[in-house]
Amino acid sequence: MTAPSSRLLAVLLACVVTAACGSSAPKAPTAPETAGTETSSPTPPSSTIGATVSGLVASGASTSMAGAIPMGASGLSGVTITVSGTGLRVTSDGAGHFTLTGVPSGTIRLQFSGGANGEIEIDDVDEHERITLVVHASGSGMEIDVEEREGGPESQLEGKIASVNAGAHTFVINGITVSVPGTASIAHGSRSLTFSALVVGARVHVKGSKSGSTITATRIEVQQAGGPGPGNGNGNGNGNGNDGEDNGDDNGEDNPGAAQDVEFTGTVTGLGGACPALTFSAASRSVTTSKSTNFLTACTAIHNGLKVEVKGKAAGKGPVAATRIKADD
Question: Is position 22 within any domain?
Protein backbone atom coordinates (compact mmCIF):
# COMPACT_ATOMS: atom_id res chain seq x y z
CA MET A 1 0.00 0.00 0.00
CA THR A 2 1.37 3.45 -0.93
CA ALA A 3 1.87 6.18 1.65
CA PRO A 4 -1.06 8.34 0.47
CA SER A 5 -3.34 5.35 0.75
CA SER A 6 -2.21 4.78 4.35
CA ARG A 7 -2.88 8.40 5.22
CA LEU A 8 -6.40 8.18 3.69
CA LEU A 9 -7.17 5.06 5.69
CA ALA A 10 -6.10 6.72 8.92
CA VAL A 11 -8.39 9.70 8.25
CA LEU A 12 -11.38 7.46 7.60
CA LEU A 13 -10.79 5.51 10.84
CA ALA A 14 -10.64 8.75 12.83
CA CYS A 15 -13.98 9.89 11.40
CA VAL A 16 -15.63 6.60 12.34
CA VAL A 17 -14.35 6.78 15.92
CA THR A 18 -15.48 10.40 16.27
CA ALA A 19 -19.02 9.59 15.10
CA ALA A 20 -19.33 6.60 17.44
CA CYS A 21 -17.98 8.30 20.55
CA GLY A 22 -19.17 11.86 20.26
CA SER A 23 -19.73 13.79 23.48
CA SER A 24 -23.43 14.37 22.74
CA ALA A 25 -25.73 11.35 23.12
CA PRO A 26 -28.45 11.07 20.45
CA LYS A 27 -31.89 12.32 21.48
CA ALA A 28 -34.91 10.02 21.46
CA PRO A 29 -37.29 10.75 18.59
CA THR A 30 -40.16 13.11 19.47
CA ALA A 31 -43.70 11.87 18.83
CA PRO A 32 -45.49 13.93 16.22
CA GLU A 33 -48.08 16.43 17.57
CA THR A 34 -51.72 15.74 16.92
CA ALA A 35 -53.75 18.71 15.68
CA GLY A 36 -56.30 20.17 18.17
CA THR A 37 -55.07 18.18 21.16
CA GLU A 38 -54.93 20.06 24.48
CA THR A 39 -51.63 19.62 26.30
CA SER A 40 -53.10 20.57 29.69
CA SER A 41 -55.27 18.29 31.84
CA PRO A 42 -58.94 18.33 30.86
CA THR A 43 -61.28 20.44 33.05
CA PRO A 44 -64.03 18.37 34.71
CA PRO A 45 -67.56 19.25 33.62
CA SER A 46 -69.32 21.82 35.82
CA SER A 47 -72.55 21.06 37.64
CA THR A 48 -75.89 22.12 36.21
CA ILE A 49 -76.41 25.85 36.54
CA GLY A 50 -79.87 27.32 37.04
CA ALA A 51 -83.03 26.60 38.97
CA THR A 52 -85.30 23.58 38.61
CA VAL A 53 -89.02 24.11 38.11
CA SER A 54 -91.27 21.07 38.23
CA GLY A 55 -94.91 20.43 38.89
CA LEU A 56 -98.33 19.23 37.85
CA VAL A 57 -100.69 20.67 35.27
CA ALA A 58 -103.98 19.68 36.90
CA SER A 59 -107.01 18.84 34.81
CA GLY A 60 -109.15 21.48 36.53
CA ALA A 61 -109.60 23.70 39.55
CA SER A 62 -109.97 21.97 42.88
CA THR A 63 -113.47 21.70 44.28
CA SER A 64 -112.20 21.35 47.82
CA MET A 65 -112.62 24.31 50.13
CA ALA A 66 -108.94 24.21 50.97
CA GLY A 67 -108.05 24.69 47.34
CA ALA A 68 -105.43 21.92 47.30
CA ILE A 69 -105.35 19.35 44.53
CA PRO A 70 -106.73 16.10 46.02
CA MET A 71 -104.58 12.99 46.17
CA GLY A 72 -104.84 11.05 42.93
CA ALA A 73 -106.02 14.08 40.96
CA SER A 74 -105.59 13.66 37.21
CA GLY A 75 -103.25 15.81 35.19
CA LEU A 76 -103.17 17.04 31.63
CA SER A 77 -100.68 15.32 29.33
CA GLY A 78 -99.18 16.89 26.23
CA VAL A 79 -99.13 20.45 27.58
CA THR A 80 -96.07 22.40 26.40
CA ILE A 81 -94.39 24.54 29.05
CA THR A 82 -91.88 27.14 27.81
CA VAL A 83 -89.67 29.57 29.73
CA SER A 84 -90.21 32.86 27.87
CA GLY A 85 -87.12 34.34 26.28
CA THR A 86 -85.16 31.07 26.41
CA GLY A 87 -85.00 27.82 24.50
CA LEU A 88 -86.18 25.86 27.53
CA ARG A 89 -89.27 23.81 26.73
CA VAL A 90 -90.83 20.61 27.99
CA THR A 91 -94.08 18.67 27.51
CA SER A 92 -96.08 17.30 30.43
CA ASP A 93 -96.11 13.51 30.69
CA GLY A 94 -99.08 11.18 30.79
CA ALA A 95 -99.81 12.12 34.40
CA GLY A 96 -99.48 15.88 33.80
CA HIS A 97 -96.05 16.24 35.42
CA PHE A 98 -93.15 18.27 34.03
CA THR A 99 -89.60 19.31 34.95
CA LEU A 100 -87.50 22.19 33.62
CA THR A 101 -83.80 22.44 34.51
CA GLY A 102 -81.31 25.22 33.96
CA VAL A 103 -83.97 27.90 34.49
CA PRO A 104 -82.41 31.38 34.71
CA SER A 105 -82.57 33.44 37.87
CA GLY A 106 -84.70 36.55 38.32
CA THR A 107 -88.31 36.93 37.23
CA ILE A 108 -89.45 34.24 34.80
CA ARG A 109 -92.63 33.62 32.82
CA LEU A 110 -93.87 30.12 32.10
CA GLN A 111 -96.07 29.82 29.02
CA PHE A 112 -98.50 26.92 28.71
CA SER A 113 -99.99 25.76 25.41
CA GLY A 114 -101.92 22.76 24.18
CA GLY A 115 -104.71 21.57 26.50
CA ALA A 116 -104.01 24.39 28.96
CA ASN A 117 -103.18 27.86 27.71
CA GLY A 118 -101.85 30.96 29.43
CA GLU A 119 -98.84 32.03 31.45
CA ILE A 120 -97.71 32.50 35.01
CA GLU A 121 -94.96 34.68 36.46
CA ILE A 122 -92.52 33.64 39.19
CA ASP A 123 -90.49 36.35 40.92
CA ASP A 124 -87.01 36.32 42.45
CA VAL A 125 -85.93 32.89 41.22
CA ASP A 126 -82.60 31.92 42.79
CA GLU A 127 -79.93 30.21 40.69
CA HIS A 128 -80.05 26.92 42.60
CA GLU A 129 -83.67 27.02 43.73
CA ARG A 130 -86.05 24.07 43.41
CA ILE A 131 -89.61 25.21 42.70
CA THR A 132 -92.61 22.87 42.72
CA LEU A 133 -95.96 24.00 41.31
CA VAL A 134 -99.52 22.79 40.98
CA VAL A 135 -101.33 24.80 38.31
CA HIS A 136 -104.61 24.63 36.41
CA ALA A 137 -106.29 26.48 33.59
CA SER A 138 -108.62 29.21 34.83
CA GLY A 139 -110.70 31.11 32.29
CA SER A 140 -108.31 32.39 29.64
CA GLY A 141 -105.19 31.96 31.77
CA MET A 142 -103.37 29.77 34.27
CA GLU A 143 -103.65 29.82 38.06
CA ILE A 144 -101.20 28.57 40.69
CA ASP A 145 -102.81 26.37 43.34
CA VAL A 146 -99.63 25.51 45.26
CA GLU A 147 -96.07 26.86 45.02
CA GLU A 148 -93.22 25.45 47.10
CA ARG A 149 -89.65 26.75 46.91
CA GLU A 150 -86.47 25.24 48.38
CA GLY A 151 -82.77 25.83 47.95
CA GLY A 152 -82.98 29.63 47.94
CA PRO A 153 -82.24 32.00 50.81
CA GLU A 154 -85.46 30.81 52.50
CA SER A 155 -87.95 28.02 52.04
CA GLN A 156 -91.27 29.31 50.74
CA LEU A 157 -94.77 27.90 50.44
CA GLU A 158 -97.90 29.44 48.96
CA GLY A 159 -101.42 28.01 48.85
CA LYS A 160 -104.69 27.64 50.72
CA ILE A 161 -104.79 26.36 54.28
CA ALA A 162 -106.33 22.88 54.45
CA SER A 163 -106.45 22.47 58.25
CA VAL A 164 -105.48 24.35 61.41
CA ASN A 165 -104.33 23.15 64.82
CA ALA A 166 -104.77 26.20 67.03
CA GLY A 167 -103.36 24.48 70.12
CA ALA A 168 -100.12 23.54 68.38
CA HIS A 169 -100.01 26.79 66.36
CA THR A 170 -99.70 24.87 63.10
CA PHE A 171 -101.56 24.60 59.83
CA VAL A 172 -101.27 22.45 56.72
CA ILE A 173 -100.98 23.34 53.03
CA ASN A 174 -100.91 20.51 50.50
CA GLY A 175 -99.60 18.02 53.05
CA ILE A 176 -96.87 20.33 54.39
CA THR A 177 -97.12 21.41 58.03
CA VAL A 178 -96.33 25.03 58.87
CA SER A 179 -95.30 25.74 62.45
CA VAL A 180 -95.94 29.32 63.60
CA PRO A 181 -93.76 30.35 66.56
CA GLY A 182 -94.54 33.46 68.56
CA THR A 183 -91.72 35.31 66.81
CA ALA A 184 -93.26 34.85 63.35
CA SER A 185 -94.68 37.91 61.60
CA ILE A 186 -98.26 37.58 60.32
CA ALA A 187 -99.64 40.36 58.13
CA HIS A 188 -102.02 41.36 55.38
CA GLY A 189 -100.25 44.15 53.55
CA SER A 190 -99.19 46.67 56.18
CA ARG A 191 -101.68 45.41 58.76
CA SER A 192 -100.43 43.04 61.47
CA LEU A 193 -102.54 39.98 62.25
CA THR A 194 -102.63 37.24 64.84
CA PHE A 195 -102.68 33.47 64.46
CA SER A 196 -106.49 33.57 64.56
CA ALA A 197 -106.45 35.00 61.03
CA LEU A 198 -104.93 31.75 59.72
CA VAL A 199 -108.16 29.87 59.04
CA VAL A 200 -109.11 27.07 56.69
CA GLY A 201 -109.38 28.35 53.13
CA ALA A 202 -107.14 31.39 53.63
CA ARG A 203 -104.49 31.74 50.93
CA VAL A 204 -101.11 32.55 52.45
CA HIS A 205 -97.47 32.96 51.47
CA VAL A 206 -95.06 31.47 54.01
CA LYS A 207 -91.34 32.13 54.40
CA GLY A 208 -89.16 30.20 56.82
CA SER A 209 -86.88 27.20 57.22
CA LYS A 210 -87.85 23.65 56.29
CA SER A 211 -86.96 20.41 58.01
CA GLY A 212 -88.52 17.26 56.62
CA SER A 213 -92.15 18.02 55.86
CA THR A 214 -92.40 20.96 58.29
CA ILE A 215 -91.69 24.64 57.67
CA THR A 216 -91.01 26.84 60.69
CA ALA A 217 -92.37 30.21 59.61
CA THR A 218 -90.61 33.53 60.03
CA ARG A 219 -93.16 35.52 58.02
CA ILE A 220 -96.69 34.79 56.79
CA GLU A 221 -98.49 37.05 54.34
CA VAL A 222 -102.26 36.52 54.21
CA GLN A 223 -103.18 37.06 50.56
CA GLN A 224 -106.86 36.14 50.69
CA ALA A 225 -109.21 35.69 53.63
CA GLY A 226 -110.30 32.18 54.48
CA GLY A 227 -113.52 30.43 53.69
CA PRO A 228 -114.97 29.09 50.48
CA GLY A 229 -115.07 31.47 47.56
CA PRO A 230 -117.78 31.74 44.94
CA GLY A 231 -118.20 28.61 42.96
CA ASN A 232 -115.96 26.34 45.03
CA GLY A 233 -118.64 24.97 47.28
CA ASN A 234 -118.80 24.83 51.03
CA GLY A 235 -120.73 21.69 51.70
CA ASN A 236 -124.22 23.16 51.60
CA GLY A 237 -124.96 21.85 48.15
CA ASN A 238 -125.68 25.07 46.31
CA GLY A 239 -122.12 25.51 44.97
CA ASN A 240 -122.17 29.29 45.11
CA GLY A 241 -120.07 29.70 48.25
CA ASN A 242 -122.77 31.72 50.00
CA ASP A 243 -125.52 29.74 51.59
CA GLY A 244 -126.95 32.58 53.58
CA GLU A 245 -127.88 36.17 53.50
CA ASP A 246 -125.14 38.78 53.65
CA ASN A 247 -126.67 41.98 54.89
CA GLY A 248 -124.09 44.09 53.11
CA ASP A 249 -122.75 45.97 56.08
CA ASP A 250 -119.12 45.14 55.24
CA ASN A 251 -118.48 48.12 53.03
CA GLY A 252 -114.89 48.46 54.11
CA GLU A 253 -113.63 47.98 50.54
CA ASP A 254 -113.55 51.78 50.21
CA ASN A 255 -111.22 51.96 53.18
CA PRO A 256 -109.65 48.52 53.58
CA GLY A 257 -107.51 49.58 56.52
CA ALA A 258 -110.50 50.56 58.70
CA ALA A 259 -112.61 48.05 60.61
CA GLN A 260 -116.28 48.11 59.70
CA ASP A 261 -119.36 46.60 61.33
CA VAL A 262 -120.49 43.47 59.51
CA GLU A 263 -123.49 41.21 59.92
CA PHE A 264 -124.36 38.11 57.91
CA THR A 265 -125.81 34.61 58.06
CA GLY A 266 -124.01 31.49 56.88
CA THR A 267 -123.22 27.85 57.52
CA VAL A 268 -120.18 26.96 59.66
CA THR A 269 -117.38 25.15 57.80
CA GLY A 270 -113.74 24.45 58.62
CA LEU A 271 -114.29 24.77 62.36
CA GLY A 272 -111.08 24.93 64.37
CA GLY A 273 -109.71 26.13 67.68
CA ALA A 274 -111.18 25.64 71.14
CA CYS A 275 -113.80 27.62 73.04
CA PRO A 276 -113.90 30.51 73.32
CA ALA A 277 -111.27 31.03 70.59
CA LEU A 278 -112.85 29.46 67.52
CA THR A 279 -112.06 29.89 63.84
CA PHE A 280 -114.44 28.99 61.04
CA SER A 281 -115.87 30.15 57.74
CA ALA A 282 -119.42 31.21 56.95
CA ALA A 283 -120.92 32.99 53.93
CA SER A 284 -117.50 33.25 52.27
CA ARG A 285 -116.02 35.01 55.33
CA SER A 286 -113.40 33.97 57.87
CA VAL A 287 -114.66 34.31 61.42
CA THR A 288 -112.76 34.35 64.71
CA THR A 289 -114.23 34.36 68.20
CA SER A 290 -112.75 35.21 71.57
CA LYS A 291 -113.68 35.60 75.21
CA SER A 292 -115.19 38.96 74.22
CA THR A 293 -117.67 37.31 71.85
CA ASN A 294 -121.27 37.18 73.04
CA PHE A 295 -122.34 33.57 72.40
CA LEU A 296 -126.15 33.67 72.28
CA THR A 297 -125.77 30.04 71.28
CA ALA A 298 -123.33 28.21 73.53
CA CYS A 299 -119.78 28.12 72.16
CA THR A 300 -119.66 24.36 72.63
CA ALA A 301 -122.77 24.01 70.45
CA ILE A 302 -121.05 25.54 67.41
CA HIS A 303 -120.34 22.83 64.85
CA ASN A 304 -119.75 22.37 61.14
CA GLY A 305 -123.03 22.56 59.25
CA LEU A 306 -124.71 24.85 61.81
CA LYS A 307 -126.30 27.94 60.29
CA VAL A 308 -125.37 30.99 62.37
CA GLU A 309 -125.91 34.72 62.50
CA VAL A 310 -122.62 36.57 62.86
CA LYS A 311 -122.05 40.14 63.97
CA GLY A 312 -118.59 41.61 64.24
CA LYS A 313 -115.95 43.88 62.79
CA ALA A 314 -113.66 43.45 59.80
CA ALA A 315 -111.39 45.51 57.56
CA GLY A 316 -112.56 45.06 53.99
CA LYS A 317 -112.86 41.37 53.19
CA GLY A 318 -110.47 40.41 55.98
CA PRO A 319 -111.24 38.08 58.89
CA VAL A 320 -114.29 38.98 60.98
CA ALA A 321 -113.74 39.39 64.71
CA ALA A 322 -117.13 38.21 65.98
CA THR A 323 -118.85 40.23 68.68
CA ARG A 324 -121.97 38.06 68.64
CA ILE A 325 -122.77 34.54 67.48
CA LYS A 326 -126.25 33.04 67.38
CA ALA A 327 -127.68 29.95 65.72
CA ASP A 328 -130.12 30.84 62.96
CA ASP A 329 -133.33 28.99 63.88
Answer: no
In a domain, 237, yes or no: no
Residues in the chain: 329
321 pLDDT band (50/70/90 cuts)? confident
pLDDT at 28 over 50: no
Cβ–Cβ under 8 Å, residues 280 and 255: no
Instruction: Establish if 271 belongs to a structural domain.
Output: yes
User: Which residues constitute the domain of residue 201?
Assistant: 154-224
3-state helix, strand, coil in the chain (%, to 5): 10, 45, 45
Please count the other Cβ atoms lying within 10 Å of the Cβ belonging to residue 256. Answer: 15
Q: Is the dihedral of CA 130, 131, 134, 137 positive or negative?
A: negative
Rounded to two decimals, the pTM is 0.54
Pick from 216, 139, 121, 235: which is nearest to 176 by CA? 216
How many Å apart are CA 52 and CA 36, to the nearest integer? 36
Is the Cα dihedral 115, 119, 122, 125 positive or negative?
positive
If one counts every other C-beta atom within 10 angstroms of the C-beta of residue 268, the result is: 22
Determine the number of helices (DSSP H) and then strands (DSSP E) in the chain.
Answer: 1, 23
Q: Kindly state the DSSP code that residue 160 receives in the 8-state scheme.
A: E
Q: Which long-range contacts (CB under 8 A, 24 or more apart) does 85-90 make?
A: 85/109
DSSP 8-state class, residue 75: B
Q: With beta carbons less than 8 A apart as the criterion, state whether 315 and 226 touch.
A: no
